[in-house]
Amino acid sequence: MTKKFLIVASDADSLINFRGPLLSALMKAGLEVHAAAPNIYDSKSRNNLERIGVNIHEVKMKRTGTNPLTDTKTLYDLWKLMNNIKPNYYLGYTHKPVIYGLIAAWLAGVPFRYALITGLGFTFQSNIFWLRVIVRLLYKVALKNTHKVFFQNPDDENLFLDQGIINSDDKKTFIVNGSGVNLKDFHFTPIPKNINFLL
What we know:
By secondary structure, this protein is of the alpha/beta class. The protein has helices spanning 14-17, 20-28, 46-51, 68-85, 95-107, 121-125, 129-144, 154-162, and strands at 4-8, 32-37, 55-58, 89-93, 112-117, 148-151, 173-175. It has a 7-stranded parallel β-sheet, with helices on both faces. It starts with a strand and ends in a 24-residue tail after the last strand.
């Protein structure tokens, strides 16, 4: 029986732009790959995902919202999706797919659960104290029953360890060398001599 892999993102287009080679590698390894994101059916990446054989699913999720009722609905929708798909593996990246996706995967009994921490985002630098406390607590709950947590830089890993979000005794963190750039898709172009930058 073919094993299933579910990946959840908060932005549908990032599934091709940043995770396309991963999705292709998973399918080459013989896995049935499913991807879920908000507005995936209307995204520019839909055709590319379906063309390479990824099963796509819409999930309601507000990337930057802090409404607890909306986020509870997101958690429920992810749990329901996982009960329907019954994946063997789950990977979430960015805040809400990591937090709510991992909690839903644990509740749905997904055997292997992984997180990719792509950055800390505004909540870790926010001036709103209660928001920082809640987000850190949610990360701690979500990552407690995770099999492996991938970081893209050692500073984020150290912060999670220093703040007790992850226990250093678990030895389940791993640093990857970023997302990488496919030079076949993104060609080298010399910088023009006369160029202005606005930052």
